[in-house]
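FAQ

Q: What does a record look like?
A: Structure on top, sequence underneath. For example:
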């Protein structure tokens, strides 16, 4: 039997796809590969990028162009003009993943069956813009994917399908996002097939179990050395690829603090009076070529850093170019 004969028959649903971030690309590609009737891609306008601030199309738009799918890029998808454009397509269902705008009730009523959203958490946990980052930040061992029916309230719709996966001990937010995007794509297709067949019914979320995952800000990257060794490691992993975990090195009096991005660390669960007595962020005595920092009653070994304006480097290279002594401190820009 040929591979084509093994492919499932495409659903008769007429779809609108809404997505901007890379997280949406595997779902969009899966819909196209399976022959779904995708009538339009709605994505955010192209944004200036790089040193020369050139307008660069996102990956999902590039895929749509390559596959001959029409693209719509309104500044606001909720305006009367945008909604009128979508009404003309007479769609059955809206598929949303990492689009970047909150959708109005009027827009969600345009498709005959409303909309479904692919969300990167086990809802109702981590509703909001950065579920992957906050799951790692809080040290969760397990996360997952949820397909929900969309409502005007963010991530509050009925759960259609859900699947979980462990978080790797060294996995960064960027790495986990790539994995969850691929993990969730077939789940979306399964949900669409169930909706088309009338066999899939959503289950209401328990609002009492809801937690928030707000959009990240640059200040979330400032390392809290009092979080303990594991907490610091989790924060560094959670802030990659943005806003990146950073700290400031404070040396002898009169020297300006040095901003340093911390890319990789190793927790050390050291139980000693000297470590417990050192204020969080203090550089501890250690072997040559090693940078050990107090973190509560534990310690963190710095492995990989990126000084401000410079490339990433192993900590040994950084120490060869910077005089760092036990008792020097890492902390906020104005701390000492």
């Amino acid at each position: 039997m040929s591979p084509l004969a093994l492919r499932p028959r495409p659903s008769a649903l007429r779809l609108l796809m809404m997505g901007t971030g890379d997280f949406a690309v595997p779902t969009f590609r899966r819909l196209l590969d399976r022959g779904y009737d995708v009538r339009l891609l709605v994505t955010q306008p192209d944004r200036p990028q790089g040193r020369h601030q050139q307008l660069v199309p996102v990956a999902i738009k590039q895929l749509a162009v390559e596959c001959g799918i029409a693209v719509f890029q309104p500044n606001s998808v909720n305006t009367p003009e945008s909604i009128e454009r979508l009404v003309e397509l007479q769609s059955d269902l809206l598929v949303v993943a990492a689009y970047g705008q909150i959708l109005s009730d009027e827009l969600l009523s345009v498709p005959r069956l409303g909309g479904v959203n692919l969300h990167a958490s086990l809802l109702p946990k981590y509703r909001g813009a950065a579920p992957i980052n906050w799951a790692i930040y809080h040290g969760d061992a397990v996360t997952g994917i949820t397909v929900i029916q969309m409502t005007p309230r963010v991530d509050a719709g009925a759960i259609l399908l859900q699947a979980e996966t462990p978080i790797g001990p060294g996995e960064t937010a960027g790495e986990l996002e790539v994995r969850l995007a691929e993990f969730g794509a077939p789940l979306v297709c399964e949900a669409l097939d169930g909706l088309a067949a009338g066999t899939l019914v959503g289950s209401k979320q328990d609002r009492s179990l809801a937690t928030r995952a707000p959009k990240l800000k640059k200040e979330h990257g400032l390392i809290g050395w009092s979080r303990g060794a594991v907490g610091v490691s989790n924060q560094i992993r959670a802030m990659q690829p943005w806003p990146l975990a950073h700290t400031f090195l404070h040396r002898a009096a009169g020297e300006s603090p040095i901003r340093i991005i911390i890319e990789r660390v190793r927790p050390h669960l050291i139980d000693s009076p000297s470590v417990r007595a050192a204020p969080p962020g203090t550089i501890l005595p250690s072997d040559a070529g090693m940078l050990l920092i107090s973190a509560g009653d534990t310690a963190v070994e710095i492995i990989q850093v990126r000084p401000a304006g410079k490339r990433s480097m192993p900590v040994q290279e950084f120490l060869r170019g910077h005089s760092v002594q036990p008792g020097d401190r890492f902390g906020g820009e104005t701390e000492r």
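Q: Is there anything notable about this one?
A: The radius of gyration is 24 Å.
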